[in-house]
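Now for our target.
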Amino acid sequence: MVSDQRHSTVSYLLIEDLLDAIREIAEPHVFHQILLKAGISIPGDRRKARISRDQIVRLYKVAAHMTGDEMMGLWSRPIRKGALKQICVASLSASSLGAGIFRMATFWNLVLDDCQLKLTASNDHAHLALIPQEGAQLNRFGQMLLLKLTHGLASWLAGRELPVAQVGFAFPQPEFAEDYPVLFPANCKFSAPISQISFDRALWANPINRQFSELSEFLNQAPRDWIFTSSHEHALALQVREHLYQTHFEATLQSTADYMNVTTRTLIRRLEAQATSFQTIKDNTRRDQAMSALSEGVSVEAVAQDLGFSSVSTFHRAFKSWTGLTPAGFRKSAV
């Protein structure tokens, strides 16, 4: 069994801010069509419902096209079609990675009324912060998306996924905080003074490692290639997730701590600092793998066996506790 972030999911609650923004700018029948084309339905139990990467990608593409706003109503001024392409074109001709991100920030500062992007540097780190303008109320999903776009664009320009030193958000920790490591390969802090993403400052001197001929593929794929992180090196939760895949979910807290050369107490403490636990990560990883396999037509019996359950009935109970649906009910809804 190979780890693959295509199988990762996030809470439906994470995209509710985006859906609310789309609803504000789209007529009811258009909003309904967007959900239909994205393969998303309003769930009965919002807190248990999960959204896959493919659904987020479709929602992004469909909503941007049908609303005429590349930021889908997340900001007070619509961002017209072609904005992302112009950001990439400007960044590609920069002399270094840092200069490319400066050009990206400059572009957003010309078109956004709600916030300004500010680049600063400390001894070891380069930071990009979102500075709210007077009276502006920034959408949580909008803040996440701008910081994620920064990471995605910087990684594409560099030709590899860049490590992130830290991500901070100027809003309280949401109940879906455990999903953020799927998006960012770094610790995410909440209730920060400002929303900000930080990188190793030395990376900013790196050259641009892309050609204009590669731009069309990046734009056509967006945001598929950058919305979920694939890095396991810099996010503890993803390291645990990767180890679970490698051991076919047979890993225990003790064996995982041994694998990481730390004590169980240290591993527990570090995971608690990221608002999660070993058992939560194990449950979430098995849930995501089960959802992916069931949607691809794998039998319930095979999924239960692959995920290490002692019986099909035990898997049934676990899956319903995770999603609010039986495996058969989920398979029907995923068709």
In short: The chain has a mean pLDDT of 90.
